[in-house]
Amino acid sequence: MLTIQKAQDWMHKTNQYIQDNKAYLTELDQAIGDSDHGINMSRGFQEVENKVESASYDEVSALLKDVAMTLMSKVGGASGPLYGTAFLKMSTAVKGNDTVDQDVMAAGLEAAAQGIQQRGKSTAGEKTMVDVWEPLASWWKEQDEISAENLEAVAKEAMESTKQMEATKGRASYLKEKSVGHIDPGSASSYYLFKALAEVLA
Ligand code: ADP
Ligand code: MG
Ligand code: MG
């Protein structure tokens, strides 16, 4: 399912979506944060792309670890360590598998979603990227076979569900009920990540 080549393509496509939607991500963060999510993500994923395209890997886990380290060191703000933790946990969970099949990936995504929650001391329903990662990981685990189309739809619906939530974690929580009515920026960038994954797996 996820070969080294596909994992590289995943990061390439994610970076494209992030660069193309940098202004939109910043706009979302302008509404309920400090206006830097587009900048943070665009810097981080450009570095990720540069890193994984220039290196060679003997397994997917090693590539994911590079993604984690790059995001942790190059992205300031809350999202860097959170995305970094997600990819580090995913890397550890899929270690030892030349090709990451659907079940191994299920474990990887579950570990990633849990990692974000541990690191962020957050849980689903708090209007953060957890609201995309957690339902996505649960959905993945239940599937007999992953449909790329459904993967994209589940991620999109999860992102959109954050619009009506009141933030209780991260900067948006300072706004309390005024955070309602806006999509969470980190959920939007997470959506692009899974949209890219869906395309790679299609
Ligand atoms: P910062 O808020 O430090 O400026 P970013 O703007 O890059 O960092 O990222 C903000 C995003 O990080 C939020 O939209 C949210 O999805 C995510 N986030 C913030 N705090 C937490 C947390 N405690 N747990 C999970 N995700 C969080
Ligand atoms: Mg911000
Ligand atoms: Mg910031």
UniProtKB/TrEMBL annotation:
SMART domains: Dak2 (SM01120). It comes from the Bacteria. The keyword Kinase applies. It is an enzyme of class 2 (transferase). Keywords: Kinase, Transferase. One of its GO terms (molecular function) is phosphoenolpyruvate-glycerone phosphotransferase activity. PROSITE patterns: DHAL. Its EC number is 2.7.1.121. InterPro entries: DhaK_L_YcgS, DhaL_dom, DhaL_dom_sf, Dihydroxyacetone_Kinase. The keyword Transferase applies. Residues 5-199 form the DhaL domain. Pfam families: Dak2. This is Dihydroxyacetone kinase subunit DhaL. The gene is dhaL.
